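Case 535 in the screening queue. Each case pairs one protein sequence with one candidate compound; here the compound is thiamine diphosphate. For every case the pipeline is the same: read the inputs, emit a complex structure as tokens, and attach any notable structural observations.

Predict complex for case 535.
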Amino acid sequence: MASTADVIARRLYEAGCRHAFGIPGGEVLRLVKGLTENGIAFGLAKHENAAGFMAEGTYHASGAPGVLVATLGPGVANAVNVVANAYQDRVPLVFLTGCVDAGEALTFTHQIFDHRALLAPITKATFTAVDGSVDVVIDKAVAIARDDQPGPVLVDVPIDVANAEQPDTPSTRRVRPTRGVPPEGADLERARDWLREAARPLMIAGIEVLDHGAEAAVAGFAERHGVPLLTTYKAKGVLPEDHPLCLGAAGLSPKADALLLALIGSSDLIILAGYDPIEMRAGWRNPWPAGTRVIELCAVANTHYMHQAGVSFMGDVGAGLDALNDSVNKSARWPAGEPAATRTALQQAFAAEQDWGPGAIIEVTRRALPRDTVATVDTGAHRILLNQMWQCYAPRTLLQSTGLCTMGCALPLAMGYKLVAPERTVVAFTGDAGLEMVLGELATLRDLGLSLIVVVFVDECLTLIELKQRDAGYANVGVDFGASDFPAVARAFDMHGVWSDDRDSLEGALGEALERKGSTLIACRISARAYDGRF
Ligand SMILES: Cc1ncc(C[n+]2csc(CCOP(=O)(O)OP(=O)(O)O)c2C)c(N)n1
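Case 535 output:
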């Protein structure tokens, strides 16, 4: 016999999980004890939302599902945002919660609501742990969380089940299924013909390339067939962004869209490699002229209708590209050189300010930090500019919320990643409002003893929203806020904190941060109008 908590913890451990995050309440104490006694360290956060992002950070570093723990009622309610994020951003997250027993819930109301009903629309599945079948429940939860498309699964554990002993049965774990069959038949022949005949092919890669470990297949395909590649924000770095075939990333920048959508418009074959349009603006609805040849390789059936493709293969993205590889085109692609011209135009459009501004901050930081730095970025004006300017040289080296686009993710994502990969340089970029949303987690950073670099774009404004407000001709309301002494706040949490107002001071602060044991916060003061016309 083993306790419920032990069974859950052991199955998570077998799935590669080594960290869980959350805030305990009486109803999950038994679970927390089980996790820690079975090799899964429990990280105490200040808010369940941030704890969920720490869990996501561990996933990007380890490949194992993130584990979030919250107690009943307010704990679950606090986690709604990060669960929605895991759903929209395709993050495998096992969410463990406690609840009162079904019988008790009939006559007891304090802190009680239906956790499963609350989270149903933003989870892939929800379970209530069942006495005698706890192993099946947790195995299913892990499998569903990891299956295409990855996402969050709730396991609500009633107190009497948490305290029960479970039979020590052999695992019923399902073998992870092989993804689909490679493309074949008439559609494959058609796709090969299209590739052979294409003079101006273009590939768009998205998150499913990362989910399927198809990065090398994408890079190899682009090079072999001379196909330029653009990516979503999540797939940045699938091809090193200084590679001549790489056109950078698209997502939220109208300025980048104008250049990239024009190139798409002149292409005669679009290859969608694991491209999930949940990251894209409305301008990416059917972004190519009607009749354009489009080959789609996707993990799940295209039910979003953001676009349609002439040929759509559902299955493993890498295997799909390999099947197309047979096709040989002997003539030069893009004889008029449009992709190279677009690359140059993008570089000019997103050149850094000569002296100081958000672009200069991004440029100086990219140059000062190692090539394999892992960056996280929060939501706001700074993120849009950063995605266009910050070059990634490997996948999963810029973490962010691109489906839900929530604020308050950059700091905890960086913390989770650094915990699993202490040897990597990890920098979190955040707006001042985004940081103030999760300021308490600086205490968690202190308690976890991590060495991070936090770069804050300080403009005392919700700039992205202020831009929209001004564009709409509305009065300035609810977007400006007062000055905070961020370096002093950092020092209060045992971090090193400095102001930076120019390129030299930022470069110096980053150099010192790299040498320092412990975390550094660099508060970069910029004007509230610094993003005007920038993206
Ligand atoms: C949780 C959450 N609340 C509100 C928003 C809407 N929103 C998007 S960007 C933004 C402003 C962020 O301000 P700041 O962190 O200072 O970054 P900046 O835009 O100034 O770069 C807001 C309020 C959001 N995306 N997420």
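Case 535 observations:
- The pocket of thiamine diphosphate is lined by residues 378-382, 405-408, 431-434, 457, 459, 461-465 (CB under 6 Å).
- The chain has a mean pLDDT of 96.
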